[in-house]
């Protein structure tokens, strides 16, 4: 079964420090992977998807098939990055998203 | 664009009553809508997938007679929690999709059963 694992429940860093939120997946085919973000009291929104290979709000994520990982990175964290981040895997057949457990990023001033 | 609304945003009901939650895509037609449940400080758990004009597909462990889903039009899906009990108290979130993967999420509905 498809599974997405985010090993850290909470990641706390100081402003300006690099950030890496870990995500590992289990899927034998070609994965469709996403990062979603949920700011306090706001709805879940798409941050980025691996096929677009873009950088959003300074965040990037590279798919590493060898390590089955899709870690989210940002070189210099900002306080406004504080939020809950979810890694998700999409099913090509059903369009369903399978979410990881989520990681709370706390950026301290 | 691609805005999804939910109504109500918060509902309190007595044990044994039924509650209906609406999910609407405001500016696009959603062929598929998804219903999730989220417990405090936990991830989203997919409950069911709803396609317009057909029966919903429920995830394993989700009681379809307990959580009735109707997707009557391309812009509206409803989730009815029947005979609600305190353990049904949760945050219910819907999302709408126009094509594979691109899901737009509603703001969620907080259900409290007393």
Shape of chain B, please? globular
| Fraction of residues in β-strands of chain B | over 45%
Gyration radius of chain A (Cα, Å) is 13 Å
Number of contiguous helices of chain A: 0
Order of helices and strands of chain B: EEEEEEEEEEE
The end-to-end distance of chain A, rounded to whole angstroms, is 41 Å
Structural notes for this entry:
The complex is a heterodimer of chains A (109) and B (114). Chain A is mainly β and 109 residues long. Chain A contains no helices and 11 strands. In chain A, the strands form 3 sheets. In chain A, strands 2, 5, 6, 9, 10 and 11 form a 6-stranded mixed β-sheet that branches. In chain A, strands 3-8-7 form a 3-stranded antiparallel β-sheet, with no helix packed on it. The termini of chain A are far apart. With 114 residues, chain B is an all-beta fold. The interface between A and B is medium-sized, with 21 and 22 residues.
Précis, in short:
The complex is a heterodimer of chains A (109) and B (114). With 109 residues, chain A is mostly beta strands. Chain A has strands at residues 3-5, 10-14, 19-21, 24-26, 32-38, 45-49, 60-61, 72-74, 83-90, 97-99, 103-108.
Would you spell out the secondary-structure blueprint of this structure?
The complex is a heterodimer of chains A (109) and B (114).
Chain A: E1 3-5, E2 10-14, E3 19-21, E4 24-26, E5 32-38, E6 45-49, E7 60-61, E8 72-74, E9 83-90, E10 97-99, E11 103-108
Parallel strand pairs in A: 2-11
Antiparallel strand pairs in A: 1-4, 3-8, 5-6, 5-9, 7-8, 9-10, 9-11
Chain B: E1 4-7, E2 10-13, E3 19-25, E4 32-38, E5 44-51, E6 57-58, E7 67-73, E8 76-81, E9 90-97, E10 103-105, E11 109-113
Parallel strand pairs in B: 2-11
Antiparallel strand pairs in B: 1-3, 3-8, 4-5, 4-9, 5-6, 7-8, 9-10, 9-11
